[in-house]
Amino acid sequence: MSQITDDSYTSQSHPAWVQRYLDSPHKLKQLYRRTLAVVVLSQIFGGAGLAAGVTIGALLAKDMLGSDQFAGIPVALMTFGSAISSLLVGRISQKLGRRYGLSLGFIAGGIGAIGVIFAAILSNVYLLFAALLLYGAGTSTNLQARYAGTDLASPTQRATAVSIALVSTTFGAVAGPNLVQVMGNLADSIGIPTLAGPFILSAAAFIGAGIVLFILLRPDPLIVSKAIAAANKNKSQADSTQTSSLTSDSNKRGIIVGATIMILTQIVMVSIMSMTPVHMGHHGHGLGDVGLVIGFHVGAMYLPSLITGILVDKIGRTAMAIAAGVTLLAAGILSALAPVDSLPLLIVALSLLGLGWNFGLISGTTLIVDATTPATRAKTQGTVDVFIALSGASSGLLSGVVFAYTSYPTLSLIGGFLSLLLVPVVVWSIMKRKAQQRNDVSM
Question: What global pTM score does this model have?
Answer without folding.
Answer: 0.76
